[in-house]
Every structure is written in C-alpha cells, then in structure tokens.
Amino acid sequence: MLTAIIPKIISMQPSLTASENEIGRYVIHHAEEVSSSTITSVAKSTGTSEASINRFCKKLGFKGFQSFKIALIQENFYKTMKQEKTDVPSSFIISVCQDYQHILVNTSAMLSESTLMAAADAIRQARHIDIFSFSNTAFVAEELEFKLNMVGLPAKAVTDINSMRVFSANIREGDLVVVIVPSILMRDIYQAVTVCKDHGAKILSITSYDSPKLNDLVDFKFITSDKITTRNPVALSNNLAFLYVVDVLYCALLKNDKSLRQKKLNSDTILNNQQMLDSYMLEY
Questions:
Q1: Is the pTM of this model over 0.70?
Q2: How far is CA 217 from CA 10, 52, 194, 266, in A?
C-alpha cells in the first residue's frame, strides 16, 4: 500500500509541538537524506532529541523511527519511479492536471479500506444523516445529500453555522453527522460536533487537517491531501479531493447492497426520462 508521509505531516502541522514541527519541516525538505540517516543524525540536524523524533513518528502512526524510515524509503522510491515516467516538458494545462493527479493519489494513500467500509455501513444504518459544511465546501455537502437521497437515505446538508447549532441540539443516538470542512478545529464547528457526539451521534469527518484531538471525537476520519504539495497551490482547490472521498464512500455504500444499487438505477431512470421529455418539448 502506497504511503503518503509528506501530506500526512502537512495535515498534522497545527497539532504538532514546536520541536515536532521542526522535525516535520526537515523531513518535508530533506526526505531523501532522512531515509538514509540515523535517528542520531536527524536529531542533530533538527536541534531536537531522539525521544522527540520517536514521539513524532508515533504521532504519524509508526512504531518508531525505523518503521517511519522504511515507509519514507518506499515513498521516495515510488516518487522517483513516477518522475522518471512523467518528468518531461509539458504544457501548462498538463501541469495543472498532474497537480490534481498528485492530490488524488496522495489522498487515496491516506484512506483506510477498513474504515471506508465501516463508514459505509454506518451511513446505511443511520436513522438520519446531517452533513455539516460551509463556505466553499458547502457544494460538496449538497452533492452528498443528493447522492444519498437518490438511494432513499434520509440526509440533509446543513451549510451555515446557526443552522448547525439548531440541528446539533436535536441530534439523537442513531444519527450520523458527516463533517466536510478544511478543519474541524474551528470554534463553531468543533462546538457543534462536540454537542452531536455528546448526544450519541456517530461522527464522520472529511478534512484536510488531522489532529490527535479528533481521535476521541470522530468515529470515521478521512484526511485529504492539501494543495500545498502541488506546483500551483495558490490557484488550485482542495475540493476535488473532498469530492473524491465522497465518491469513494458512495461506491463503497453501493458495492455490497443490491437494494441501494437498484434504487440508484431507478432514480437515474427518472432523471433521464425527465431530461428526454424536456428535450422533446424544446424541439417543438
């Protein structure tokens, strides 16, 4: 399974200590050197301690520096092989396309199939699904609402903070709250999600930033690769990665449920027939 260490470090930067961030920045800019270095030399280069480096590695989900270094070597090897195939002069349009490919590949590397399937089961079994989002990610929530309604699952996109407060106050056990935002660790979002958790709801999050604080709050956590890892970060959007995770979840939802697949086909037929009728009326 392809790892995505650099995107993972970037996603966790807000929750790392000063010394851990120093280690993280060093790894981001000197990945090849770290993959061939000892823990002692990395500690010396970053001005930190071996204990800090081991804590940093464990926060990223590794047992220690050695297992972290093995994963980093594998990632560097994959990137080198990929660059040998694609590192040729290309048009500006192709370069933007490659940026999006980079985001999607790194996002897929951070997805867990077991978590994905468990999340799909939670969506299927939920009494009601509320989808919290706002600002530029609101349309992703509305897309998920539409997809779930097409297969008969009760879902509602909630895309402003005041409505989130009202909905969170009425959440009950058996409900599922899906949160699609860059980061849950914003005051209003965090408070609304905490209320939902206290009321017994399950929480599914799709965000660009990770934190150990989410481990006790979120039942199903999905982290997307941030656009900062691309060549055109100022102009690109992270929303394609959010949509990708939503589509992967939807595929998992339909994969093992024949009745939901049939409902989706029925909804597609209704929409297609309506479109054909509209076209017929326009022709005359």
A1: yes
A2: 21, 26, 7, 37
